[in-house]
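Table S2 (text version). Query chain:
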Amino acid sequence: MHANLCILEPLCPSCTFKTSPTSPSLPSLIFASSSIASRWTTQLTSSDYYYAKSFLMGYASDIIPIFAIVVAIYVSFSMAAMHGIAVAASGMLSTIATGLAIDAYGPISDNAGGIAEMAGKSHKIRQRTNALDAAGNTTAAIGKGFAIGSTALVSLALSHAPILVDCLVIKERALWDYKAQLEEDPTVHRHLSFPVRRLAGAESVQVD
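Corresponding structure-token output:
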């Protein structure tokens, strides 16, 4: 804090630029603003400060989930294209029911342990309820990870769905246009390039 106040000293140009303190010069303002910006940048980027350490821990905790999502997208897309990604998202969502059921052990076992402790029961009961509470909380945390992963896959599938629909519409229109031209001129397929014939399904049309 004192360092930030000290770097404001150039705002008093009467000592440096011999002008009135009420009208600071442009160089002094630039120097003061750059000093403050460098100080804040150091606090946000240096690992010696709390802010940078907090960001580092947050980013480090995202490495494994992001890697798992990328692997799931790559494997599912390589097996069945966008349909595989949609099926993978459905598979991740199918585990939510089990996760929510086990998650119910958390508050129930915690309340049961508190009641047993207030009733003066054995400490073994409290240990067992704590174990059930930990199992419920752990399962809830894992279930949230699956929910986030399925959200990423569903977002990818939904964003790609309009593109697939447009491709199907374009292919259907091209096929109908090709058939109409083929009825008018049976030799029209000879003048079309291979990509156009493939898009229109001309390779499946047998022309005598």
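Notes on Table S2: The chain has two domains: 2-61, 63-161. Residues 63-161 form one domain.
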